[in-house]
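Need tokens for this chain, all 247 residues.
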Amino acid sequence: MNQHTLTTSTSAPSLSPLIAWRNALGIVVLLWLLGLVNFGLVTNYLASTMSNNLLLASFYLDISFGIMMVVIVGLIVLWQRRHGETLFDLGWGRPTTVTAIIIAVIYGALWVVASYIREPHPLQSFLTLNWERPLMMLIGLFLAFGEELAMRGFFMEQLRRGGIPTWLQVIASAIFMGGYHGIIGLHYSLFYGLSSMILFGIIAVIFVIGKRSLTPGTIAHGMTHFFGDPVLTMGILHGAILLGVMH
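Here are the structure tokens for all 247 residues:
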């Protein structure tokens, strides 16, 4: 593993800043397009037609997100193979630090608490087990992996190879990833967007602390879905209803 790590870090091709940004923004455009479909159209449809059963609607929304992520992960795998690389070169399975893991677990736990804090009965909601929840837990882990692979692994790695400063990689990944989380139905929530930028910016910092391994970030991000859904996803639908769904 150490030999593989050394080979990867020394043989990774360098890119011109222009090519690096082109590659990085390519994955951003894909995420935004699919985000518009899911956070926008699908969310608006489910919020307007299933407002009386948001639990089931959140399950359908999660499935839609899962299909989106299969496409993104599949395209990244194809890109890596075409360039003679694997997901390891993007940080998947790369050794990390204990410090980064500890920070990730604490951060993930705080994020889960934040997901339930607005619930009338937070503990009861957290302990509730319905048939949708186990399936959403599994889908959520895959969603976390996919987004981390795209925005921390692919996006930040392309910029690193282009010589882009680490601080700019962190800020850019936070802005581009957090930005599309502000799409709520056919509206845009500045609050959702800005808060998401901060949340994902912290994960980008954890990614750097963890020696650019995807493990810590995926743990933190995955915890929010694994322990936070379906409440987390239902929050998107609630947001669309509050902003006013379009029939």
